[in-house]
Amino acid sequence: MSILDLTGIAQQFGDKILYEDLELHLNKGEHLGLIGQNGAGKSTLIKIITGEQLPDEGTIAWQKNIHVGYLDQYVEVDPTLSIKDFLKTAYAADFAKEARIGELYMEYGESMEDKLLEKAGKLQTELDQGDFYQIDTLIAEMSSGLGLDVLGMDTPLEDLSGGQRSKLILAKLLLEKPDVLILDEPTNHLDDEHVAWLSQFLQEFEGTFVVISHDRDFLNQITTHIADIEFGKLTKYTGNLTKALKQKEQFQETYMKQYASQKKQIEKTEAYIRKYKAGSRSTMAKSRQKQLDKVERLTPPSSNAIAHFEFPYAPIVTTLALETTDLEIGYQRPLLPPINVTLRYGEKVAIRGFNGIGKSTLLKTLIGAIPKLDGEFHFPANTKVNYFEQDLQWENPYQTPLQYLSDHFPKETVKELRKHLAKAGLPNQLAQEPLSTLSGGEQTKVKLCQMTMQKGNLLILDEPTNHIDQATKDSLRESLANFAGTVIVVSHEEGFYQDWTDRVIEISQ
Question: Which residue ranges does the record assign to the ABC transporter domain (predicted)?
Answer without folding.
Answer: 4-256, 317-507
